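Late entry, written up from scratch paper. The run itself happened at the end of the previous shift, but nothing got recorded in the book at the time, so transcribing now.
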Amino acid sequence: MKVTIRKKFSFDCAHHLPFLPAGHKCTRVHGHTYKGFVEFQGTPDENGILIEYGRISAIIDGIVDHRDLNTLEGLPTSTTENIVVYLKKKFDELCERDIEVTWVRVKESKTTYAEIKK
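Output as recorded:
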């Protein structure tokens, strides 16, 4: 039987968007406390675990937390849209058996976010 698990996470990063017009506030280096959500769906293993939550946290803690996103290999530009795609790919790497990532959302602020849905 398939089950769904979700994990909420946050990470603090700096970035800038140099391609925006001169004088735009986001061309300057600044930071965000990003809020994220990821959802996995599949069949748990013989122990009843789909994906151990610590493995999900390791993606955030080891790759993006407290980084300058403009220096992150594999991230073309540090837009929220690209961040959510980047994290989806990293979460996909956790998937074994018939497990899949069905939803990833990254919130840059209280009012803005990007997401990928299955």
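The radius of gyration is 15 Å.
(Scratch paper discarded after transcription.)
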